[in-house]
From TrEMBL:
PANTHER family: KINESIN-LIKE PROTEIN KLP-3. Residues 449-631 form the Kinesin motor domain. Residues 67-187 form the Calponin-homology (CH) domain. Pfam families: CH, Microtub_bd. This is Minus-end-directed kinesin ATPase. Keywords: ATP-binding, Motor protein, Nucleotide-binding. Residues 8-17 have a biased composition (Low complexity). ATP binds at residues 533-540. GO terms for biological process: microtubule-based movement.
Amino acid sequence: MPQEEESSSSSWCNSNINEEEMSSSGVKNLVRGFKSLGSSSNKTDAGGGDEMISDRELAHRKAEEAAARRYQAAEWLRQMNGGGCSLPQHPSEEEFRLALRNGLILCNVLNKVNPGAVHKVVESPVMAVQSTEGPAQSAIQYFENMRNFLVAVKKMELLTFEASDLEKGGSSSKVVDCILCLKGYYEWKLAGGIGVWRYGGLVKITSFPKESPASLMGSESADESFDESESSQFEQLLEFLHFSNEVPVEESTTANVLAFLFDHFGLGLLQAYLRDSNGIDDFPLNATVIDTLLSKVVKDFSALLVSQGTQLGLFLKKIVKGDIGYMSKEEFVEAISQYLSHRKNLVSSDFSKFCTCRGQKQFLGHTRTSSESSYLSETTDLHQKELHELRLHYKLTRQEVVQMQADWREEISQLVLHIKRLEVASSTYHTVLEENRELYNQVQDLKGSIRVYCRVRPFLSGQTNVQSTVDYIGENGNLMIVHPHKPGKDARKVFNFNKVFATSCTQEQIYDDTQPLIRSVLDGYNVCIFAYGQTGSGKTYTMLNTEETWGVNYRALRDLFQITKKRADVIKYQVGVQMIEIYNEQVRDLLVCDGSNRRYPFKSQVLYVSVVWKPFNTYDQEFTFHNFLKH
Ligand SMILES: Nc1ncnc2c1ncn2[C@@H]1O[C@H](COP(=O)(O)OP(=O)(O)OP(=O)(O)O)[C@@H](O)[C@H]1O
């Protein structure tokens, strides 16, 4: 780049560039600032556009910053002199200059930092009494101090300044830089002097392999080295950045670890700014630009430190507390190691995303090997494939759920329809049942509410050579009896019943005519069935008998329960049984088993269905149902 252009650009930077603009929106703003400054130099418009901060504000900020740095330098000099120096705590620029001008403080401090650096320090200049040369001589002696100091500082490859900078109109900021640089060097030495040390964001490598690091320190000498060096400053900077990445943390002490961390990340950030800055190549990379960029790096890094420090503080407090109480120092260190390892993996994957610039992947501080890249690529592909399958699965499941919901809705609507039909059918059933009941019982009434049946018992085994009195049994219920000892027509008598059962009739045939009455009981009618006849005529046989040839009682109860069961969904029946004996005008409960009194009045009462049986009465046997059904 032509020298004229550079000096021209430098003059813009020195007069107009400001850090606020740099830090507000990064390097792009820096470039935009340069461009707008470039255009403002050719115009008479001193405003420089809306985005520029006014010169007055800029000057004010610079003055504040310069004062803060001056106070810092003065404080350190006072400390190193044991407080006994003539430097005020907050000196003005003039006071600062005047206090240091004789070089006495500077030489003494330098000798403390690096003993023997200044061999001869002029403590109190010899004043020739009554000599006109007195002031001039003392000035020369003071100048000797200053010269010795500057030579020693230059030998130590620290930031330096010109003796004229301590004169009126000189650059006191360079003096401040030099003192703070000396301070940094002193502190680095106190910390062990291993590895790297830095001053104010500018870095010095103590074992820099090729050239003097002074060329990288943003001083005037840096600009000079730019002029003299064959390679550009940018190339030097990149070379230096590369070197700084290779300084191992393990070799450093705690202080150096901190310094290294700042250098590593701060310079990494600077590197990113430089690479990311569109159009910055159009401008010379001089000391001012580096200063500005580094200032932004420091500012960003400080902001990050504050934010991360807060979060890390919370996190560490949480870790040290643990789940079951405070952990030991070893456990704490182990937990931090695990956390760092975890973060390292996360950061390495984040970097690949962060560093994708203009369609190209650029890695900061670490270039992935091809195997790492292919592994990452495969992992990403695998995850994407799994994600795709998950989405498909989710889609299918969702469809299934929707289909199931539709099916359920359909089933529910069918059920509702079915229930409505059942409701109708149920109400119809009750109506039909009622009609049926009435009709049925009307038939029973028509048959007769009192029916009398006659059963002829066969001869018992052993009853031989006897003659039956039954002469004829008619189909319509007639029975003709013959009296063997009466003559003529008086010998025959005819009886009429509802039905006459011959000796050959089975128990089942007997019950057929009784069965309809059992249903009537469950329809709400009272029914009484009883047997009547002389001793041995077969009453017990007909009504009870054994399991093989059940009588009316058993069959009636069987039907009673069967019909009850059939109607269980519609009507709930409760059935009770009682058996009593009436003999010789005495009534007894035959179901009492606990030995209590069997005679009437009974403890238990017939509730719903009662069976009354009089087995020992010579002329009657009864089977009665009392219906208590409620609808
Ligand atoms: N239809 C029949 N077929 C066969 N045997 C019968 C028949 N009826 C009654 N018997 C028999 O006749 C005998 C007398 O019958 P049963 O005891 O039933 O008479 P009963 O009228 O109850 O007498 P009682 O009044 O004295 O108790 C019994 O041995 C019985 O088995």
